[in-house]
Design goal:
By secondary structure, this protein is an alpha/beta fold. Helix content is 42%, strand content 16%. It is globular and about 65 Å long. 50% of the residues are buried.
Length: 385
């Protein structure tokens, strides 16, 4: 197991040992329901609120602006569906970018089925939304715009602050999916100017099954889950205290380690890209290399199939992700790379390498040692190179 190399950290990350230790008591010692008024419940409530404060500090928000959820998907859905349904009397247009995560895209598909008008913004060949396109799309009927802070496939960072300024000039609320940005780049909701922001614990060394939604004070949502009055009436259901504690600790560690971790991941990512481009012909880096998260590198190996490369690397003990998704036995090109208008060959040969603050130099060097031979064999089998 120690020889295996995990370079798929945008899919999920290992849980930091400090996070595990923080969570342990809330499985077998302090297991009370945070809504109960007895001492067991009050200890759980205190832990929940401490975690809420840690998340708030991480995001530059107030504790009363943090809603705990089950993860990024629920946070996105609560933000988008909750705002759209609440503000329907003001207008029926909602705006998203073409490269959003499926949690956003499919939420808006649902909104479209309910009669909302969904406008999808194009991106350039680097995966960036154009501010002129944002300005052109905004109308008197617009009630919400959602643009992800950092793309999960390319790492490209969007100009969220500038988008928010344009939207607020029209009285439009702004949501950003910051799931891939959290723990990699600084996040301050006041500087960004957003009204809603989603994060997920397992993307930055927290536990799976817990996330948070920042809701700016004064913004009102229509709940998508009904039941008790948990989370100030915005999210029904018994609170996941152990998960919240884990998310809080992950936020605390990420805040303390951010600068050092980002520099290190960026250096290792650059070494990986340099080694690939210098040793393997006909390779290209996809996305914006000037404005992106430090852990992500999306590279196309022309003349090779991404799925074949993924499987061949897995046999060598190296885990990566492909730029395509497999559904019911068929492979379709990444909607993100397709929106960037890349060539068919570039789409087919795309591989995503994603690092974490636990990735080592030895792992990067081992990958660079193995990769040229793997690519050569896959290209030979494909017979198109």
């Amino acid at each position: 197991m120690s020889s295996r190399i995990y370079l798929d950290n945008n899919a999920t990350t290992c849980v930091d040992p400090l996070v595990v230790e923080a969570m342990k008591p809330y499985f077998d010692e302090e297991y009370g329901n945070a809504s109960s008024i007895h001492s067991f419940g009050q200890k759980a409530r205190a832990a929940l609120e401490e975690a809420r404060g840690q998340v708030a500090l991480f995001l530059g928000a107030g504790s009363d602006e943090i809603v705990f959820t089950s993860g990024g998907t629920e946070s996105d859905n609560l933000a988008l569906c909750g705002v759209a349904r609440r503000l329907r009397h003001k207008g029926n247009q909602i705006i998203i970018s073409a490269i959003e995560h499926p949690a956003v895209l499919m939420a808006f598909d649902g909104m479209q089925a309910e009669g909302f008008r969904v406008t999808r913004l194009p991106v350039d060949h680097q995966g960036r939304v154009g501010l002129a396109d944002v300005e052109d799309a905004l109308s008197d009927e617009t009630i919400l715009i959602s643009a992800m802070m950092a793309n999960n496939e390319t790492g490209t960072v969007q100009p969220i602050r500038e988008i928010a300024l344009l939207a607020h000039g029209k009285g439009v609320l702004v949501h950003t999916d910051a799931v891939q940005a959290a723990g990699k780049v600084p996040i301050d909701v006041e500087q960004l100017g957003v009204d809603l922001l989603s994060i997920s614990g397992h993307k930055f060394h927290g536990p799976k099954g817990v996330g948070a939604l920042y809701v700016r004070q004064g913004v009102r949502l229509q709940p998508i889950m009904l039941g008790g009055g948990h989370e100030r009436g915005m999210r029904a259901g018994t609170e996941n205290v152990s998960g919240a504690v884990g998310l809080g600790m992950a936020c605390q560690v990420a805040r303390q380690e951010l600068s050092k971790a980002a520099e290190r991941m960026s250096r290792l990512r650059d070494r990986l890209e340099e080694g690939i481009l210098n040793s393997i012909p006909d390779t290209v880096v996809n996305g914006c290399r000037q404005s992106r998260t430090p852990q992500t590198s999306n590279i196309s190996f022309l003349g090779a199939e991404g799925e074949s490369l993924l499987m061949a690397l897995d046999l060598q003990g190296i885990a990566v992700s492909t730029g395509a998704a497999c559904h019911a036995g068929t492979v379709s090109a990444s909607h993100v790379l397709t929106a960037m208008h890349l060539s068919r060959e570039t789409l087919q040969g795309a591989i995503r390498f994603s690092l974490s603050r636990f990735t080592t130099e030895e792992e990067i060097e081992r990958t660079l040692e193995v990769l040229p031979g793997v690519v050569e064999r896959v290209r030979q089998v494909a017979g198109r190179y």
